[in-house]
């Protein structure tokens, strides 16, 4: 029996990141409190290096390694690249905030990089266990991140809630996966799809397994009825962590759905489509309606996220290449928007002031017309009103759903986005039509301000020229799922 | 600058001017803000003039077309063009923007740069709505326009401005989202194209047509507004600043009627015929019932707002008569209503700036202290009541003529507006302008300034000019109207 060394090239980015963050873990012990900036710079460099590795190798091809349990395809490359970029923004937006709250420690960076590693592994997983490994890496890192502010009881409660519910969801997912394994006799996703397509598996067990699987997936994405943790975590976690939770893991969530449902369970589309329809409609309804009643900005954005994930599912459940590409476009747009929204909250907050209440936005136009304008762009994009990236994201998923013959679902979705428009508009109203409650000028690091402006203006630019991003998503999906 | 880019210029000149105003404008230097805004508005109007002079009246085809690929993934094009139906709206909109800038010259004190910029940007977006030949491009302009209007009402409006602005936004958004769903449906039916002209060629069964008609109807009826979805309009008007009311009444209401002409009739002709009775009934309710509602208003702006709804009822009536007279009358009525309602709101603005009240009861005998103003106000009121010789008469008269060809009772009911319109408008004039000087505030009123005289005289000349020589306005419409009626009368299945 010979032991062949697996082809490591497809996993270079992950390997590099792991090495870099392990080195960071050790190096940080020797960095004094006053030189902590070095840790930040090192983390950013690690991200640049990871991004560099993502650019080398066979672009545009589907390569599997580790006996087919790890796949490197264009979709994975694109999603990983966006995740790395997102995390880089997250770190830049957070620096000031965590510094002023005594969280500027090595652990923050290490945990975020570990979570990123988990995300990247999930994105490339082609085997149930690899997927699970990535998922747990992400979940555990997130739970610790949420609890990072040890003396905050809200944060601890949120972390506890997340941890317990995440464990439950993982359990359900594993249970589902084990049934699929029992029915098909393999954990390799491509083979699972083959066995199901040939009709060699007991459909009863498959459907039962699928139900558990969808429940676990829905929890991870934070969609109704498995959404309870989302508002608490968003509100309870330090805003810098909320920023992270609301962005990069959603990309992983999308990949998760793609690999498991579109990939492994592709032949059972009729079954998971009907499940996702229910989840999607409920998410849009509950998310949008509950968001109206919120006074806490972070909580409102949490419910808005739930609604957005419902929209995202519209693309996935269409079950076509166009639908998957639309969902990918949607998730990227959503991540950009959410990044900018929390980036702005972080910019407005300062020592002893969180800026997490809706009323803290009052009169922003008087305090700073530029940031009010950026927030206007962000809200327009969230509401899916032109001219913004959000509009074309909405258009893409709606047309995918209509193409799949789900006309009634499209009508429901547009009505839900009307409800959504109400609370986004309320933010605009607070900024433009109310008087400010405090006149403290908005100050922030210049890199934070610059990146935020670029970030929000990208939303506008994508609202005028969405084609490049649409092309990227369409090409990634088409090249990855063809083979 | 070639003739090929005139439509693009009509969109982008005001928008760029608006951005420039935002960039340069400082509250410390209002002169510069106004100057840039006025130059921007004038330039915006100047680039639309060649559209009129270069327009070929005999042709029903789209003119001044521009087409570029915009988003190939959805086959969305940047396709612009105008015909005899849209021509006037572009001119009217660009023209009214100048008046709005002048009207806000010194009246707006807070954040003047943002105010002027919002109007300029909106002006460009509205031109975009009228000249788009791609449904998504149309939709983008249609929705994007809501944001500046929302801010205009909400930031510079009256006491209940926030309520009014949100009501305005959500009402209009509801309709437009359903329209978006219809667009996506038609996209697949038209072979993956968002071209409006291709939508018009799609053959659809009656059931589908009716659903699409309803989706469009939700969107456009709210804009017009038709009874019973009109309730946002009085609120929005009352709370909006003068300029906002002028643009709302003179321009944005027309977008609804334009939508019926561009989308409902040609895309769903059979549904339009099937539902014509309902549409005519709703129109007549607007004409008669809303006319009665206007009669009892205590607030001048509300009165003119209801009068607008009633007059727009004429427009929708004309459209769904399916004869050239009705449709052309409706179009003329829209242009005329643009001038008259704009003028009425500007007049009320003149009074409001001095007295800070719009209640009819607070006035009386204004003619004694403001004779020049009273002359204009009486003229515009007469026009609003449809006095022959003013533009208000032409449109209403032709629509009534068109209606009588279809049904005697339609015409009779529609004609009551001439009585009702005269009743509510002249009664208001009597109470506000004539009689004894009511109180010390009225006694202390100063007559209009040169700036106010300027915008009122321009509108007065237009109202009279159109009333005396309507041919100038109706000529470019003929070919397009005839073609549209033919399209709307050809069954699609």
Automatic annotation (TrEMBL), chain A:
In terms of InterPro entries, this protein maps to: NADH-Q_OxRdtase_suN/2 (IPR010096), ND/Mrp_TM (IPR001750)
Q: What is its EC number?
A: 7.1.1.-
Q: Where in the cell is it found?
A: Cell membrane; Endomembrane system; Membrane
Q: Does the keyword Transmembrane apply?
A: yes
Purpose:
NDH-1 shuttles electrons from NADH, via FMN and iron-sulfur (Fe-S) centers, to quinones in the respiratory chain. The immediate electron acceptor for the enzyme in this species is believed to be ubiquinone. Couples the redox reaction to proton translocation (for every two electrons transferred, four hydrogen ions are translocated across the cytoplasmic membrane), and thus conserves the redox energy in a proton gradient.
Q: How does it assemble?
A: NDH-1 is composed of 14 different subunits. Subunits NuoA, H, J, K, L, M, N constitute the membrane sector of the complex.
Please state what the protein is called. NADH-quinone oxidoreductase subunit N
Automatic annotation (TrEMBL), chain B:
Residues annotated as domain NADH:quinone oxidoreductase/Mrp antiporter transmembrane: 133-418
**KW Transferase (keyword) present:** no
Q: What Pfam families does this protein's entry cite?
A: Proton_antipo_M (PF00361)
Transmembrane residue ranges: 6-24, 36-55, 85-108, 115-131, 137-156, 168-188, 200-222, 243-261, 273-296, 303-322, 334-352, 373-402, 408-427, 453-472
Q: Where in the cell is it found?
A: Endomembrane system; Membrane
Keyword annotations of the record: Membrane, Oxidoreductase, Transmembrane, Transmembrane helix
Membrane topology term reads:
Multi-pass membrane protein
**What Gene Ontology cellular component terms go with this record?**
endomembrane system; membrane
Is the Coiled coil keyword given for this protein? no
Query: So what EC number does this one have?
Result: 1.6.5.11
Which InterPro entries does the record match to this protein? NADH_Q_OxRdtase_chainM/4, NADH_UbQ_OxRdtase, ND/Mrp_TM
Instruction: Report the GO molecular function annotations.
Output: NADH dehydrogenase (ubiquinone) activity; NADH dehydrogenase activity; ubiquinone binding
Question: Which GO biological-process labels does this protein carry?
Answer: ATP synthesis coupled electron transport; electron transport coupled proton transport
Family annotation (NCBIfam families):
NDH_I_M (TIGR01972), PRK05846.1-3 (NF004499), PRK05846.1-5 (NF004501)
Q: Which family does it belong to?
A: Belongs to the complex I subunit 4 family.
Name used for this protein in its record? NADH-quinone oxidoreductase subunit M
Organism this protein belongs to: Ferrovum myxofaciens
Gene name in the database record = nuoM
């Amino acid at each position: 029996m010979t032991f062949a060394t697996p082809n490591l090239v497809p996993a270079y980015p992950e390997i590099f990141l792991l090495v870099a963050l392990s080195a960071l873990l050790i190096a940080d012990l020797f960095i004094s409190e006053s030189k902590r900036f070095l840790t930040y710079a090192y983390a950013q460099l690690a991200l640049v290096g990871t991004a560099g590795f993502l650019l080398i190798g066979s672009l545009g091809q589907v390569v599997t390694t580790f006996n087919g349990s790890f796949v490197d395809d264009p979709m994975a490359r694109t999603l990983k690249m966006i995740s790395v970029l997102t995390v880089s923004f997250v770190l830049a937006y957070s620096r000031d905030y965590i510094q002023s709250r005594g969280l500027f420690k090595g652990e923050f960076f290490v945990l975020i990089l570990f979570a990123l590693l988990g995300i990247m592994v999930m994105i490339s997983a082609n085997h149930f266990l690899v997927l699970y490994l990535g998922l747990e890496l992400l979940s555990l890192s997130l739970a610790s991140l949420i609890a990072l502010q040890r003396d905050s009881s809200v944060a601890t409660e949120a972390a506890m809630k997340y941890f317990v519910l995440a464990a439950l969801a993982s359990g359900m997912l594993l249970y589902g996966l084990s049934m699929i394994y029992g029915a098909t006799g393999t954990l390799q996703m491509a083979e699972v799809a083959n066995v199901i397509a040939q009709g060699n598996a007991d459909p009863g067990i498959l459907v039962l397994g699928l139900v558990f699987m969808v429940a676990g997936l829905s929890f991870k994405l934070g969609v109704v009825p498995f959404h309870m943790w989302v508002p608490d975590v968003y509100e309870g976690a330090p805003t810098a962590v909320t920023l992270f939770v609301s962005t990069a893991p959603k990309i992983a969530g999308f990949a998760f759905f793609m690999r498991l449902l579109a990939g492994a369970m592709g032949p059972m589309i009729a079954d998971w489509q009907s499940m996702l329809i229910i989840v999607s409609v409920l998410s849009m309804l509950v998310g949008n309606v509950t968001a109206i009643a919120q006074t806490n900005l972070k909580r409102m954005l949490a419910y808005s996220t739930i609604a957005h994930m419902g929209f995202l599912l519209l693309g996935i459940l269409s079950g076509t290449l166009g639908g998957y590409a639309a969902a990918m476009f949607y998730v990227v747009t959503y991540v950009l928007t959410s990044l900018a929204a929390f980036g702005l909250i972080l910019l407005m907050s300062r020592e002893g002031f969180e800026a997490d209440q809706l009323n803290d936005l009052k009169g922003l136009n008087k305090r700073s017309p530029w940031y009010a304008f950026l927030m206007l762009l962000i809200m327009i994009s969230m509401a899916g009103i032109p001219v913004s990236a959000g509009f074309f994201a909405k258009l893409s998923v709606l047309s995918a759903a209509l193409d799949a013959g789900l006309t009634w679902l499209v009508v429901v979705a547009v009505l839900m986005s009307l409800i959504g428009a109400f609370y986004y508009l309320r933010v605009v109203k607070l900024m433009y039509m109310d008087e400010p409650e405090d006149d403290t000028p908005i100050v922030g690091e210049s890199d934070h301000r610059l990146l935020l402006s670029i970030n929000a203006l990208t939303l506008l630019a994508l609202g005028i020229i969405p084609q490049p991003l649409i092309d990227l998503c369409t090409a990634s999906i088409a090249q990855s799922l063809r083979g | 600058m070639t003739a090929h880019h005139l439509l693009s210029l009509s969109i982008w000149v005001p928008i760029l001017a608006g951005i420039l105003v935002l960039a340069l404008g400082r509250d410390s230097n209002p002169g510069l803000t106004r100057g840039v805004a006025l130059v921007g508005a004038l330039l915006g109007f100047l680039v639309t003039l060649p559209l009129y002079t270069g327009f070929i009246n005999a042709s029903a085809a789209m003119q001044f077309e521009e087409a570029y690929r915009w988003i190939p993934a959805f086959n969305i094009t940047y396709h612009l063009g105008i015909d005899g139906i849209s021509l006037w709206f572009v001119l009217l909109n660009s023209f009214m923007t100048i008046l709005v800038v002048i009207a806000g010259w010194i009246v707006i004190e807070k954040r003047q740069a943002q105010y002027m910029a919002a109007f300029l940007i909106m002006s460009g977006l509205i031109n975009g709505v009228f000249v788009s030949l791609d449904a998504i491009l149309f939709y983008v302009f249609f929705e994007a326009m809501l944001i500046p209007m929302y801010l205009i009402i909400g930031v510079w409006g009256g006491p209940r401005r926030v309520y009014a602005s949100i009501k305005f936004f959500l009402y209009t958004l509801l309709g437009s989202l359903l329209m978006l769903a219809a667009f996506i449906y038609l996209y697949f039916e038209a072979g993956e194209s968002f071209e409006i002209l291709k939508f018009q060629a799609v053959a659809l069964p009656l059931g589908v047509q009716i659903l699409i008609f309803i989706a469009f109807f939700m969107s456009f009826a709210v804009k017009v507004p038709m009874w019973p979805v009109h309730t946002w309009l009085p609120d929005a008007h009352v709370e909006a600043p003068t300029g906002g009311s002028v643009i709302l009444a003179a321009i944005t209401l027309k977008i609804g009627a334009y939508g019926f002409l561009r989308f409902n009739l040609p895309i769903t002709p059979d549904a339009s015929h099937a539902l014509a009775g309902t549409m005519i009934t709703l129109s007549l309710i607007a004409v008669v019932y809303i006319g009665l509602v206007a009669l009892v208003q205590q607030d001048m702006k509300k009165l003119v707002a209801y009068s607008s709804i009633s007059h727009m009822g004429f427009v929708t009536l004309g459209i769904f008569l399916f004869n050239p007279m009705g449709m052309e009358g409706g179009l003329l009525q829209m242009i005329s209503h643009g001038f008259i309602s704009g003028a009425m709101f500007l007049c009320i603005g003149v009074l409001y700036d001095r007295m800070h009240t719009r209640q009819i009861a607070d006035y009386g005998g204004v003619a004694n202290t403001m004779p020049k103003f009273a002359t204009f106000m009486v003229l515009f009121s007469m026009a609003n009541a449809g006095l022959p010789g003013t533009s208000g008469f032409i449109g209403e008269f032709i629509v009534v003529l068109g209606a009588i060809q279809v049904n005697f009772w339609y015409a009779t009911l529609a004609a009551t507006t001439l009585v009702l319109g005269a009743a509510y408008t002249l009664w208001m004039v009597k109470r506000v302008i004539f009689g004894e000087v009511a109180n010390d505030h009225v006694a202390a009123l100063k007559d209009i300034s040169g700036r106010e005289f300027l915008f009122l005289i321009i509108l007065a000349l237009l109202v009279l000019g159109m009333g005396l020589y309507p041919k100038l306005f109706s000529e470019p419409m003929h070919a397009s109207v005839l073609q549209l009626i033919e399209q709307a009368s050809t069954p699609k299945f």
